[in-house]
C-alpha cells in the first residue's frame, strides 16, 4: 500500500476561494504577508467551514480511495491556529471517521512533518509539491483546469485509482 497524503484547502474544500473573497472584501493587500497571516490566524474557521463546499465530491471520493485498499490515507493540512485545527478536525469527522488528520503549522514545510520518500501528496500549491518531490515523494497536482505545471494532475480525488 502506498502512503497517500491529501491537502485540505483547495483540494477537499473550497476554503481558499472563500477566504480570498473575504480578504478582498476587507481590503487586505494579499502582498502584505503580516496582514494576511493575521487574517488567517484570527479567522472564524467554523464559519468558513459552514459555508464551504466539497470540491468534486471529495469526501465521497476519499471514502472510495479508502475502500479500494490501495492507500494508507491521511489529510495533511497547513494551519494557522489551534482554532483552525479544531474546526477542520470537526468538519472532516462529519464525513470520515477513521482517516488520520495531520495539521502542519503554516510556518514549516509539510516535508518536515512527514517522510515524503515514496509517498504521494495531492496538493494544489506548487511549492508544496516541489518540496515533496525534492524530498523523494510523488507530487500530484489538484487543479480544476487540469493545468499540470509539471506534475501529474487530477481534478477529482478518485482519479488516483487510475493513476496508481
Summarize this entry quickly:
The chain has helices at residues 15-25, 33-42, 45-51, 58-68, 82-93, 126-134, 160-163; strands at 2-6, 71-79, 100-105, 120-123, 138-142, 152-154. The chain is α/β, with parallel strands linked by helices and 164 residues long. The longest helix is centred in the middle third of the chain and has 12 residues, at 82-93.
SSE topology:
Layout: E1 2-6, H1 15-25, H2 33-42, H3 45-51, H4 58-68, E2 71-79, H5 82-93, E3 100-105, E4 120-123, H6 126-134, E5 138-142, E6 152-154, H7 160-163
Question: Could you spell the SSE succession in H and E letters?
Answer: EHHHHEHEEHEEH
CATH class of the largest domain equals Alpha Beta
Q: Find the CATH superfamily of the largest domain.
A: HAD superfamily/HAD-like
pLDDT averaged residue by residue: 97
Question: Can you tag this structure with a few keywords?
Answer:
single chain; 164 residues; alpha/beta; Rossmann fold; 2 domains; 6-stranded parallel beta sheet; 6 strands; 20% strand; globular
Overview of the structural elements:
This protein has 164 residues and is of the alpha/beta class. It folds into two domains: 123 residues, HAD superfamily/HAD-like (Rossmann fold); 35 residues, no CATH class. Helix content is 39%, strand content 20%. The protein contains seven helices and six strands, in the order βααααβαββαββα. A six-stranded parallel sheet has the order 3-2-1-4-5-6, with helices on both faces.
Amino acid at each position: 500500500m502506498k502512503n497517500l497524503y491529501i491537502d485540505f484547502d483547495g483540494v477537499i474544500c473550497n476554503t481558499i476561494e472563500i477566504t480570498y473573497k473575504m480578504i478582498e472584501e476587507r481590503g487586505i493587500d494579499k502582498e502584505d504577508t503580516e496582514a494576511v497571516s493575521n487574517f488567517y490566524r484570527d479567522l472564524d474557521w467554523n464559519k468558513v467551514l459552514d459555508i464551504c463546499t466539497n470540491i468534486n465530491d471529495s469526501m465521497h471520493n476519499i471514502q472510495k480511495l479508502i475502500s479500494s485498499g490501495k492507500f494508507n490515507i491521511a489529510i495533511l493540512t497547513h494551519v494557522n491556529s489551534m482554532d483552525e485545527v479544531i474546526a477542520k478536525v470537526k468538519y472532516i469527522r462529519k464525513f470520515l471517521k477513521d482517516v488520520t488528520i495531520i495539521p502542519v503549522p503554516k510556518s514549516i514545510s509539510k516535508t518536515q512533518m512527514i517522510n515524503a520518500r515514496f509517498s504521494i501528496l495531492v496538493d494544489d500549491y506548487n511549492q508544496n509539491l516541489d518540496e515533496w518531490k525534492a524530498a523523494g515523494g510523488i507530487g500530484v497536482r489538484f487543479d480544476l483546469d487540469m493545468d499540470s505545471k509539471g506534475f501529474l494532475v487530477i481534478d477529482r480525488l478518485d482519479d488516483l485509482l487510475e493513476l496508481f
